[in-house]
Specification:
With about 625 residues, the protein is an alpha/beta fold. It contains 21 helices and 16 strands. The strands form three sheets. Strands 1, 2, 3, 4, 5, 6, 9, 10 and 11 form a nine-stranded mixed beta sheet that branches. Strands 12, 13, 14, 15 and 16 form a five-stranded antiparallel beta sheet that branches. It is elongated, with a radius of gyration of 29 Å.
Length: about 625
């Protein structure tokens, strides 16, 4: 009986394989034909197995060709979904397959016809090849060749904009003994530096959107990492491209991928160090509408089902250590720098590093460098490849908020350990940046360099860890350094600098005219001002809203139903006091109330904008919940 079952199953598999290959070849091309075949064939086999078993009871003397055509009908049925509902097509295909399997001729099926034997062997071979394809054939390589540009090259300086993800300002401005940030110290000697710049958010997506457009969070309408990037934003790269510049970008965070909306205006945008899910998403979306697997699984689970076996080559970071990731970023960056320096045309180059983001831990000689002066060592889980994970940080946060004094003392020591690992990551990133700056310096060209970050990081302050969970200074104060032609040397300014100042500053320094009106100010003009300029700054995320005016700061909460809620444990902070973000006043001055009302009138946030599955997946991979 067992032998008869396998004979029937292989006969169905032969027909299924023919139909699955036909289906795949009609809808796909290239390597995706084999990827689609794997899904169609495997999904059909889940139906074929019980079908062959049932036929033993209901059709003991089934026809061999009936079994073959039953498999063929299972494979072709989903193809008809282009014209009819998928469920109807699958039901019809199943009825036909059952009918064919139950048709007998008085002779039991006891051997495989030669054609079926050949088909079964070929299609199982294709199954293996399809799985192999998933590990070897990935996304197209990013072109390293700059396009030929018509017209005269602008006689303006090159521009390098460096963003270090998750870098809080105090670590850089007041580093502890043993830390040496050579590239940042060099930029400070050669240009303008500030104790901090203010980000428009404590999250990657809104922070970088402000940095790369000159719009604050109210204007671009992006509050958190799960908000879609609106169409038609005035990207800084587009201004440089229109002015005749070459434009290039190298990024390390999947939330900055072109699939999410970044990359506009860049001739070359290298996001190959992050898993690019656009092709995976499109592949799964098609399967969801035309396969047995698509009918059985929701699209989110279908994506996970096909991701690792069939798109491993798209996951370039897979299996690579998170430690020392900046070295891989530099491999890409230095290749593009060489290309950009070979061309007489000036360039705008956006370079993004992710290393300070959790997990915390880097590579030799910086790994554990700061432990040499530490007499005690608190036990904490450290992954050999990646360091201290964000999940560990979240568990520590729960301890901080639990009120358990004994556990809290242990947690504080663990936080000190994590913070040292974080600082070592910054040292390694700084070394990588020095390599890029040295290469650019050897080119001998005038270059404006800005180094900053999108947001900071909590290490126990306010009983919080990580970021995206407050608008306190630890989350929105980021480093700022700028050097180059037209920028005063060795100038440390106490003026309030904001990330939205970067776009107007760079365009002014490069002589690029634009019809846009900016809320930001030219940073050189700020630094040269004879008196302190009082400015208003607004920062937003999915849960909080803050306004800073002078030395005062008001933080309120968002509510999805009620809107902005004043008070509720937050309120007005006096920033001139030591550790001035404790013990807020419930009072709200009239000018703050007026500022909040005026801000809300220009808020462009639209909750109805559809979030992409890719963006949600990227956020989850980085540890964000979207709640």
């Amino acid at each position: 009986m067992l032998a008869s079952y396998f004979y029937r199953l292989l006969l169905i598999a032969a027909g299924l394989g023919c139909g699955a290959f036909m289906h795949s070849a009609l809808l796909w091309n290239g390597a995706s034909i084999l990827r689609a075949f794997v899904v169609h064939f495997t999904g059909g086999m889940f139906i074929a197995a019980p079908l062959a078993l049932g036929s033993l009871w209901f059709a003991k003397n089934a026809l061999s060709n009936g079994m073959f055509y039953a498999g063929l009908s299972l494979a072709i049925a989903p193809l008809l979904a282009s014209w009819l509902p998928l469920e109807l097509c699958l039901a019809a295909g199943l009825v036909v397959a059952i009918t064919l399997c139950c048709k007998g001729n008085g002779t039991a099926t006891t051997h495989l016809p030669k054609f079926a034997t050949l088909c079964t062997a070929v299609f199982h071979l294709l199954l293996v090849i399809g799985l192999w394809i998933g590990g070897t054939y990935g996304r197209p390589e990013v072109s390293q060749d700059l396009p030929t540009r018509a017209g005269a090259a602008p006689q303006s300086p090159d521009v390098l904009l460096i963003s270090i993800d998750t870098l809080r300002s105090d670590v850089v401005i007041n580093p502890p003994a043993g830390l040496d940030f050579k590239s940042m110290q060099k930029l400070a000697r050669e240009g303008i530096s500030a104790p901090y710049a203010l980000s428009s958010s404590g999250l990657t997506l809104p922070g970088h959107t402000s940095m790369l457009t000159g719009l604050d969070s109210l204007e671009h309408g992006v509050r958190d990492n799960f908000d879609p990037i609106p169409d038609g934003l005035p990207w800084l790269a587009k201004d440089f491209l229109a002015a005749g510049y070459h434009t290039a970008g190298v990024i390390s965070n999947g939330l900055l991928s072109r699939d999410i909306g970044f990359g506009e205006g860049f001739e070359i945008y290298d996001d190959s160090e992050v898993p690019i899910r656009g092709d995976i998403r499109r592949f799964a979306s098609s399967l969801a509408e035309s396969s047995w697997v698509g009918a059985a699984l929701p699209q989110s689970k279908l994506i996970k089902a096909v991701d690792k076996p069939l798109f491993r080559a798209y996951r370039t970071h897979q299996g690579k250590s998170e430690r020392g990731r900046a070295a891989r970023t530099n491999e890409h960056a230095l290749e593009f720098v060489d290309k950009l320096l070979e061309d007489d045309r000036p360039y705008f180059f956006f370079l993004h590093y992710l290393d300070p983001h959790d997990p915390y831990g880097t590579i030799a000689p910086f790994d554990m460098l700061l432990e040499q002066d530490i007499s005690s060592h608190t036990e904490i889980d450290v992954d050999a490849s990646h360091g201290v994970t964000g999940e560990t940080a979240i568990e520590i946060e729960k301890v901080l908020q639990s009120g358990d004094a004994v556990q809290r003392d242990v947690a504080i020591e663990q936080i000190k350990f994590m913070r040292r690992r974080y600082m070592e990551e910054i040292m390694f990133t700084d070394q990588c940046i020095s390599e890029v700056l040295d290469t650019i310096a050897k080119g001998g060209r005038d270059t404006i360099v800005i180094l900053t970050a999108d947001h900071g990081e909590h290490f126990g302050e306010h009983n919080l860890m990580k970021h995206g969970n407050s608008l306190y200074k630890e989350n929105i104060r980021v480093p700022f350094f700028m050097s180059g032609p037209g920028i005063p040397r060795a100038t440390r300014t106490e003026q309030q600098i904001q990330l939205i100042d970067i776009a107007p500053t760079l365009l002014d320094l490069c002589g690029i005219e634009t019809e846009r009106e900016f809320r930001g100010i030219n940073i050189v003009d700020l630094a040269n001002a004879n008196q302190q300029i009082e400015r208003q700054h607004i920062a937003i995320d999915g849960n909080f809203f803050c306004v800073i005016i002078g030395k005062q700061k008001y933080i309120a909460r968002w509510d999805k139903e009620a809107g902005l809620i004043l008070g509720d444990g937050l309120g007005l902070f006096n920033l001139s006091e030591y550790r001035g973000e404790l013990n807020p006043s419930a009072d709200i001055p009239a000018h703050f109330k007026d500022a909040i009302e005026a801000a809300l009138e220009r808020d462009s946030y639209q909750s109805s904008r559809q979030r992409s599955e890719f963006q949600i997946d990227m956020g989850h991979q980085l540890g964000y919940t979207g709640e």
